[in-house]
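tmp note - N-(5'-phosphoribosyl)anthranilate isomerase
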Amino acid sequence: MTHTESMQRTRIKFCGFTRQDDIDTAVALGVDALGFVMWSKSSRSVGIEQLAALAAKVPAFVSRVGLFVDPSAKWVEACLPHLDLLQFHGDETPEFCASFDRPWIKALRMRDTIDLAFEAERYAQSQALLLDAYRPGTPGGTGESFDWSRIPATLAKPVILAGGLTPENVSQAVHQVRPYAVDVSGGIEASRGCKDASRMASFVRQVASADAR
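out:
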């Protein structure tokens, strides 16, 4: 391991916030990014008014991320005042993702036939690629993991690892994959959309312990 690698800190994104208390806990734990689901078919989704209220309480230097699935441009634009980063989970084209004058990341579901090198080139304007488990008909939030060995050691874009991460397995995930960041939703919940403070704290501790290895 090089000196540079040993100094790397894995960034942490918690996703699926619906309650102010959960945001306050995440911020106190030092989480880097907070995700808000702006897809109405999700049980963790929030409307524009709820997004505005929650996002307004997020302090400086914590990124507010909006998660979209094949949205209309009008819907994304309505949410923009409350977001720092856009996360696209559907079949959005690179041109669509890049059309909002906002940094963005592209989520890719790890189906058997995916060519990550091709996708990294296709979505070259993204800030990172988020790799999630594949389940037909479900764009994310499955709570399932995938075979992390399928991720190339070198990829043209930073990797955000998602899919079935929990306080119990995230240390191994970070140690094996060495992603730029990890993203979790269900793995830190007491129930859908309601976070568990102790699991949130445990997740952060486990990531830090993996970074120190």
